[in-house]
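In this section we walk through a basic example: taking a raw amino acid sequence and producing a predicted 3D structure, encoded as discrete structure tokens. The instruction is simple. Fold the sequence below.
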Amino acid sequence: MKKINFSYALGEILIVIVGITIAFSLNKCAENSKNYAEKIQYLNNLKRDVLSDKTVLEENVDALAEKIALSGTIAAVLGTDSEDKLKSMGNLFQIAELSGFEPKDITYQTLINSGDLKLLDDFDLRAAIEEHYSNYKIMLKAYARQENIHKEYLGHYLINNVDYEAFGRNEFGFKKEALLKNIVQSMRGSFGIKLRATQKGIESCDRLLEIIDTSL
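The resulting token sequence is shown next.
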């Protein structure tokens, strides 16, 4: 019977174990490297999305501030005999233009739907991202409120209480001035609420951008 060389067999087993361990470590290292690269890509994409959102929100701030001023000008001449009345009312159609906002949340939605949010192993970073997009939902409620005033009140008024042919005769074609003044004042208030909500949205963008830059 052939004698078994236990020392040799043990050496072979150790070689196999060491080989498996090294292969596992290399695979783990490669996986970690891949995960890190994906994490950085996600953060860069997220930063780009938030910067784009911030640009739109800053434009909205300027537009809303202007609309608040124009609303005051319009309300001031309604119910008066001001010589600039018809000219001032031209601003009504300018404030009727909506300042919308649609968040660029493709990266965020991808993180959530793919389960890749776990790649962002910093708890504070994940919490900041979740809070930011929750802030958007609150802000958009102010946008929806203001749009409803446009649709339900101003839109209805412009359809039913304006003689557009009168403008061609250089006449004042707006009827029920007291009603229109109430609508414009309501719009002015909604613009103010929307403006403050937009400013908070910008602040939220700045906070998240700061955290993302720290993580990159």
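Looking at the output, two observations stand out. Residues 37-215 form one domain. The mean pLDDT is 87. In the next section we compare this with other chains.
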